């Protein structure tokens, strides 16, 4: 079995190039090749981690998309967001129609939205998508990818991220060559965003909840081709090889092992523009507690430039700089393997995590640690509001559950943090039920193993 991992950008690195899936597949007799658009240093890192696993690597180049196909694809995206916002009675789904910055992009978005408003049903969406496929089959990108796939000659093409348009064209070329195609849905909040240019024969999802979502948002996808396998994202939290003792972790990061640690994890400036103010509120309300250190992990793709003044002002904050290499665009950033150990031990040894609606609450739940979501506005007249954030569709996974603690005002910060430290099971007591709803995990079996077993069965059924 020759499995080609299509990794068009940095999003799939941690889950697939650093996870155990490659050695597991290799042990099962699979030949692994990588088709990627990554910094060569990523491959060097992965080869050091998994010695001898890549018989071949091939460059994945983003070719210019047919402009008509791109416009129609954007129109479908707008139409799908509009349709799904009506289906689910959630207007925040339209917030995923992101603005473009250039004049050309703004004009393109305007025209795409106008066209999208004329597409009213799933049937019409599918009809336009078929036109996009037809246009793509005539594009230069399609013929280039087809030629490259004939050279790579895989039995299975596995795309690690469902959102890249060029990857969608490559997958179309593979299907036309008779190559089995598989796509993994990358994250728990991806499906409501309406962007699925990568179409595959089979889809791998995190949970039954995500499978049900896929049926709602993309009803033309055969549910028998959607498979629940979990995600390799959380396999690292089950690997004792990356665990450090509290003293070791403190020594390597300049921390006091005798103090309580709480983690504030930052979001990007679009998701949470007021994070510096929230971090300042946290530090102000805990400064009398000299036995508490705030471990601040900024979002890796932006760094900590927004927080410099806050860090200088508050010595009770320790900057935990992510071990990432920065690129020119967010999708060209990538983590070093060492960052995984930092993240795992941060969750393992901190008492709680505080942020605005971040996935980090799920990371901490891996060690049954509470998450606290900030739930108050600091600038009521600002167009961004934390209240709207928690109306986003993926937070409906919380319905009927009490999975996180809520900090509803600066005055609540101190008491909520002390409660999380002293009585963690009183804060978000349903966090494990929430985690199990979002992520399917089987006792003693890694998601990487489940994916590798599934790929092996797929190949055997094909023969």
TrEMBL record:
This is UDP-N-acetylglucosamine:LPS N-acetylglucosamine transferase. InterPro entries: TagF_C (IPR043148).
